[in-house]
Specification:
Order of helices and strands of chain B: HHEHHEHHEHEHEHEHEHEH
Structural class of chain A: mainly alpha
Distance between the termini of chain B: 14 Å
Structural class of chain B: alpha/beta
Order of helices and strands of chain A: HHHHHHHHHHHHHHHHHH
Largest sheet of chain A: none
Number of strands of chain B: 8
Number of strands of chain A: 0
Helix content of chain A: 55-70%
Largest interface: A-B, 69 and 72 residues
Helix content of chain B: 40-55%
Radius of gyration of chain A: 27 Å
Oligomer: heterodimer
Shape of chain B: globular
Strand order of the largest sheet of chain B: 2-1-3-4
Largest sheet of chain B: 4 strands, parallel
Number of helices of chain B: 12
Chain lengths: 432, 266
């Protein structure tokens, strides 16, 4: 093992160490949420994950963005096979260790090149859509400076990584042409061969410099990108899969029945009923992230801020403050804040803030519960479920309802209808 | 109208049991269907169809009460569950097995949210019942006045996205020999009328437009002669929207049940 292999090992080990530390923290934060059972129907869950996450079915609802996304997605998954070779070569000082696969190896490298070029072009188109065409859903108020930067950074990093990969192959292929030892004849270069004619004119040392520096840039870039994920909306490339697996399988119209309320209502109906001993009423609805379910919190981490939910939301379309994407971003921001508080001050620290420090009542009141946001999400995030939990808190813990709703509540309670009609008139329509 | 009164047969469950009979199905009328003047016409259209086919149905009459849907969507789970428990004890008391309703909100709540609380029934939306009556040959439908007319269907959220029923109302409309035209946002992408989530019962939050106006504009852009719905609240919102554009004389907002009742001259 040479010096450079040792450096490589250190980089790799440090990157993995850092990443697993951040993932542990992420899992801890998600576990702050209430328990909810999403481990039933495993085969149905696998099939929905295959369809929606692996198969990218919902993303195709917008065909242009969908097609580009599928390219980047396939590129990401398939080109990363190359990382296996890079890691082995990096650790043992070999070069293109997998080239013994012969023509299959050439086929692989050739496909990687075509994919890399496609990803590069797709990312450029994405940048144009965001910064020149300025697609409206990337310019809602919640897309402040950091979310914009985050999105552009991801695209630029991917362009750089793909460029490095293609440059590396071009230099490698030129070195192969010059029959430099160590650079064995291997691989097919359908894209980078366009650069080879230029590269053939350079000296061997310069080519080796390019080949080595792009090789290092590529792998260090990937490891750095991996560690950027926990701080970025790009985390969806990992969480999309579990998040879809743990999707809500019930009809979308069905809202949860709160067990704590059921227990109390049963007691009201039957004073002899025995309250369950494990009764833990807690609070009704959600004030902070720990009142939401772990799936709500996983949803927040899985959101890549594409804004399809918001662009389908009837309240948002008609100019109301509500944006389902903002609900998800706020939930993640608050969860991160709570996580940092725990790191610094321990589990029981109260910073006096809550989800309502981020989300106003005006936003959650504007929701029509139409499920358009839930339907639109390519990774089955459920913003509606968070909105409903916040509403429950406002109504049941703070009795803070618009006066019209209070009238509706008292009408339902007293007359059995949301309007002020007498229940005894309920069948009058028959004789009108 | 006295002639209409003479033809409508609406037995209550109590009246059924008094005769020692039990109905095949309970017609859950809902609050809108019972009290709202426009929705009462939809209720009557459903009854006309049921009478015409000879379905043995009953209503709860004055024993029916709000399902609790608006309370639940507003966040008042207590009130919802109190309503649910009351309704379930009445429904179970009458040993109800099957329910049809013309309100997607009642439909969703009864079908999805009552089982957990002890109310297990087969619940169908009236468009599903009508489709079934047509499929089984019990209800013959001819286009009549709607033959060749342009009809668009506005998907109620709690029927469509909420419960994945997009086809029943469309199959019925096509049976009318009408030209079914779709809005750009339809089926899974249908745009809400603005009434759901208890919005029906309060002013909208500050914005630049009312949701029903946005939806009506979309419907008007494809020039239908009829905007069909399957929900009394959607009906109200779309009717108001059409009035807002002074188009109520050229475009009718009608429930699918009303289309069938009118086409069959019931």
């Amino acid at each position: 093992m040479g010096f450079s292999n040792l450096i490589f090992l250190l980089f790799l080990a440090f990157a993995i160490f850092l990443f697993s530390k951040n993932i542990k923290k992420l899992i801890r934060n998600i576990r702050l949420g209430r328990d909810i059972n999403r481990s039933d129907n495993k085969s149905e869950r696998l099939s929905i994950m295959t369809r929606v996450a692996l198969g990218q079915s919902k993303i195709m609802a917008k065909p242009v963005a969908g097609f580009l996304h599928v390219i980047v997605y396939l590129g990401f998954i398939i080109i990363n096979i190359e990382v296996i070779e890079i890691i082995i070569d990096g650790l043992f000082g070999t070069h293109r260790i997998l080239s013994f696969l012969g023509s299959f190896y050439n086929f692989l490298i050739g496909s990687f090149e075509i994919l890399a070029m496609s990803v590069l072009v797709a990312c450029i188109v994405f940048l144009i859509r965001r910064n020149i065409i300025r697609i409206p859903r990337f310019f809602n108020p919640e897309i402040t400076k950091w979310p914009k930067t985050d999105a552009n950074l991801i695209l630029i990093i991917e362009i750089l990584l793909m460029s490095a990969f293609l440059l590396m192959n071009a230099a490698d292929s030129a070195l192969q042409n010059k029959e430099v030892s160590h650079y064995i004849k291997a691989g097919a270069f359908p894209v980078s061969s366009f650069l080879v004619n230029i590269f053939n004119n350079y000296s061997v040392n310069f080519l080796i410099f390019i080949e080595r520096s792009t090789w290092w840039f590529h792998i260090i870039g990937i490891l750095a990108f991996l560690n950027y994920l926990p701080y970025s909306k790009h985390l969806h490339i990992i969480l999309a899969f579990p998040n879809v697996f743990f999707s809500n399988l019930n009809p979308k119209g069905q809202f949860s029945n709160m067990e704590s309320v059921t227990n109390e209502v049963k007691l009201m109906f039957d004073p002899n009923a025995v309250p369950p001993t494990n009764l833990n009423p807690g609070k009704f609805g959600a004030k902070d992230v720990s009142d939401l379910s772990w799936k709500n919190l996983m949803d927040a981490y899985s959101c890549t801020e594409c804004g399809r939910c918001t662009s389908e939301c009837p309240a948002n379309i008609t100019g109301k403050l509500l944006s389902p994407r903002k609900i998800m971003m706020d939930t993640r921001d608050r969860l991160e804040e709570v996580g940092k508080n725990i790191d610094k001050n321990g589990l029981d620290f109260d910073d006096g803030k809550s989800l309502f420090s981020y989300i106003s009542q005006e936003e959650i009141l504007a929701c029509t519960s139409c499920n358009a946001c839930v339907q639109a999400c390519p990774v089955n995030i459920d913003p509606l479920s968070i909105i409903m939990e916040l509403r429950r808190y406002k109504i049941m813990e703070e009795s803070s309802a618009p006066s019209e709703w209070n009238n509706v509540f008292s009408n339902i309670e007293n007359n059995g209808a949301p309007w002020q009609f007498s229940p005894s008139d309920r069948l009058n329509w028959r004789d009108e | 109208m006295s002639s209409e009164k003479a033809t409508l047969k609406v037995p209550t469950i109590g009246e059924y049991l008094a005769n020692g009979e039990s109905p095949e199905i309970l017609f859950w009328v809902g609050c809108a269907g019972s009290f709202d003047d426009r929705a009462k016409k939809i209720t009557k259209a459903v009854v006309k169809i049921l009478n015409h086919v000879g379905v043995k149905f009953a209503v709860l009459g004055t024993e029916e009460s709000c399902t609790g849907d608006p309370a639940k969507r507003a966040g008042n789970e207590f009130l919802f569950q109190m309503q649910a428990m009351n309704n379930i004890s009445i429904l179970n008391g009458y040993d109800i097995k099957k329910i049809v309703t013309a309100c997607p909100h009642c439909f969703n709540t009864l079908k999805n949210e009552y089982p957990d609380l002890g109310g297990n029934y087969e619940v169908i939306h009236h468009t599903q019942l009508i489709q079934n009556l047509i499929d089984t040959g019990k209800l013959k439908v001819e286009g009549g006045t709607f033959k060749g007319k342009k009809i668009t269907f506005h998907d109620p959220c709690y029927l469509g996205r909420g419960n994945d029923e997009y086809e029943a109302p469309r199959i019925i409309i096509e049976k009318l020999d009408a030209e079914l035209v779709e809005m750009k946002r339809c089926k899974t992408n249908g745009l809400c009328c603005g009434a759901g989530g208890a919005q029906m019962f309060k002013e909208a939050e500050k914005g630049k437009k009312e949701i029903n106006i946005e939806r009506t504009e979309e419907a008007l852009s494809i020039n239908p002669q009829v905007i069909a719905t399957g929900c009394p609240f959607c009906n109200t919102m779309m009717t108001d929207g059409v009035k807002n554009f002074n188009k109520e004389h050229v475009i009718k907002v009608m429930d699918v049940a009303e289309l069938i009742a009118q086409a069959n001259d019931l």
